Each structure stands twice: as structure tokens, then as C-alpha cells.
Amino acid sequence: MDFNMKKLASDAGIFFTRAVQFTEEKFGQAEKTELDAHFENLLARADSTKNWTEKILRQTEVLLQPNPSARVEEFLYEKLDRKVPSRVTNGELLAQYMAEAASELGPTTPYGKTLIKVAEAEKRLGAAEREFIHTASINFLTPLRNFLEGDWKTISKERRLLQNRRLDLDACKARLKKAKAAEAKATTVPDFQETRPRNYILSASASALWNDEVDKAEQELRVAQTEFDRQAEVTRLLLEGISSTHVNHLRCLHEFVESQTTYYAQCYRHMLDLQKQLGSSQGAIFPGTFVGTTEPASPPLSSTSPTTAAATMPVGPSVAGLAPPGEAALRLEEVSPPASGTRKARVLYDYEAADSSELALLADELITVYSLPGMDPDWLIGERGNKKGKVPVTYLELLS
């Protein structure tokens, strides 16, 4: 118990001395040992790394999981060292709703069939998103979090210890300075005529006491200086390790970009496939955008309004037959344009013919198009000079 009380009293005394030194420094009443410029630059670089790592980590978490409640739940599971439960992505949830809607509204109806197709695409998008979140969390978020919770905590601990060593060093310097000033004052020779002989004895005794105090203060200063230098070297080595942290974070950033690129590429492919699948249903949804019979053409539309609902990406039709199933395909050289029903069309995108029965197209060129009875509504017959072939409706803007 006595030992503990002595240690407690000693710790309290050290804490009080540091508090006094810190307060006097803040009010400009005590000198402060300044660190060299290189050390200060290392400290500023480390602080900047920590602050920006925190911001990048938090915003990446928002990107991967926009729902704040879900982020809080995942954080609590991690702190409790429990496995985070699997969560359905928004795309997968949308796919589920669309599939249920198609089942109830009629899976054989045009709307139901489209819902099923879109639901399958959304499900694939949700799965790709889940994989991206998992990969980004492991390859990017985890290293950043490990730095903040591991290396940075070690650096902060050593910096606090260095701060305490500096306060102890400056307190020893101040104590030595006061002891030397008191010793100089005590050794001042008194005036023999104005001072009683008793004061000589007191002066000599005080001088000896202050001399011992100076020696003690110098010894404490040497110890404090040694501890401060040792702690400064340890802290400096940790701060210089920030360069290795930057290299590691750079590698993680490259991996994050790779995973994000893969994710968006998968999304693009899934949506492109979906758009191709839906191309065959556009004729039923927008019947006014192409000629399906040999009746006279409709009046020209205003030039200020769009004439067709064109897609943002060129898509190839999923059905390429001229004749309905079970009938022989027509030979193009035997096909003659109808007396009426031909129209001019502007090509929206380049199109490469899949076989000899199709007509290759170049963007912005004008061709003549027409349809035949029983022909697939997603296709038209296109003519350019003496060349003739099938062309997809989704690549055309009908003019007249």
C-alpha cells in the first residue's frame, strides 16, 4: 500500500508539473522546446494523411451503402465482432417485385413478359453490385480502416508520449534556470557594515543548498533530455513510415478502380443484352414508328418533334426472319417494292450486316424502306441504289 501511495503521489506530482508547464507555455510565460523543421513536416504530413484517409473511407462507405441505417447496423456488428447478415441489394429487391408483378398480372402478356426480362437483368445487376461491394470492402476499405485503427493509433500514442517528454524536459530547464538564479543571488557578498555577522552564516548555508539544487536540476535535465531524444527518434521512425502507407494505399486504390471498372462493364453488358431482348417488343409498344402495312404513308411529322423513340445504344434485333415461323424466307432479289407505303429513313447508327440477306448501314445516310405483309415488324426492307436487304427498325428514323 505504501508503495502504491508513493507511486500515486509521484504520478500526481509529474502530472501537476506538466500541467503547470503547459499552461505557462500557452500564456507565454515559459519557454518551449521546438522540434526541427523536418520533424514538423512529418507531423503535418501524417495528420493530413489521417484526415483524408478518414474522409475517403467514410465517403466510400456511403458510395457502397447509401443507406445510413444499414451502415450503422454493419458498424455495430463489426464492433461486436459478429458476422454481418447478408442483405438483399436494391437491384435484387426490384427484380423480386417485378417477377411477382409479372406472375400476378400475367406472365404471358406483353407487359408480363417484359417484366420478367427486366427482372432477370435487374437480378444480374444486383449480383454484380454485391460482388463489387464485397471486393471493394476487402481490397480498399479494410486497408484504410486498418491504418486508422492500427498504425495511426500507435503513432498517436507515441506522439502523446513525446509531448509528455517535452513538457518534462522544459520543466527541468525552467527548474534549472530558477535554481541558478537563486544560487547567484545567495552567493552575492553582503555588505560588512550593513549586515550582521549572522547573515554570513545564513548566506553561506543558502548558497550550499542552492548549489545542491542546481546539481540535482542538471542531473534531472540530462535524464529528461535523453528520454526526449529517444522518444523523438521512435516517433520520427513511425512518421517516416507514412510513405510506406501511401504506397500501400496506392495499390489498394488501383484495385478499387479495377473492381469498379469490372462492375460497370458487367452492368453495361447486362443492360445491352436486355436492350437487345426488348428490341423485338418495341414495335408493339410504339407501332407508329415504322411502316407495317402497304397502306399509304402517314403525313410528314413536324421537324421539331422526334419521330422515333431511339435508344441510347445501338441494339441488334433478336428476330431476323422475313417470314413468319413455318414459312420459307423470301428471296430478296424476287421482292419488289409495293406501289405505296415506301418511306425515306435516316440511319441513326452504323450497322454491320450479319449475313448476305441484311443491308449494312452507315450513320446519317438516307435509304428507302418498306414492309411486306407477314413480315416481322422489327425489320424492314431497305434499298440503297441497286442494293437491297433487311434493316432493323431500331436503327432508323423514319422521315416520310
| Sheet of most strands | 5 strands, antiparallel
Question: What's the SSE pattern?
Answer: HHHHHHHHEEEEE
Distance between the termini: 104 Å
Give the amount of beta strand, in percent. 5-15%
User: What's the total count of β strands?
Assistant: 5
Mean pLDDT across the residues is 78
Task: State the secondary-structure class.
Answer: alpha+beta
What is Rg?
A: 42 Å
Strand order of the largest sheet: 4-3-2-1-5
Low-confidence stretches: 286-329
List the total number of helices. 8
Percentage of helical residues? Answer: 55-70%
Coarse morphology: elongated
List key phrases describing it:
single chain; 400 residues; alpha+beta; five-stranded antiparallel β-sheet; 8 helices; 5 strands; elongated
Explain what you see.
This protein has eight helices and five strands; from the N terminus they run ααααααααβββββ. The chain is an alpha+beta fold and 400 residues long. It has a five-stranded antiparallel β-sheet, with no helix packed on it. Helix 2 runs antiparallel to helix 5 and helix 5 packs antiparallel against helix 7. The longest helix has 77 residues. About 11% of the residues have low confidence.
List the helices and strands and how they pair.
Blueprint: H1 2-26, H2 37-64, H3 68-79, H4 90-105, H5 110-186, H6 197-240, H7 242-279, H8 282-285, E1 343-347, E2 366-370, E3 379-384, E4 387-392, E5 396-398
Antiparallel strand pairs: 1-2, 1-5, 2-3, 3-4
Could you give a short description of this structure?
This protein starts with a helix and ends with a strand.
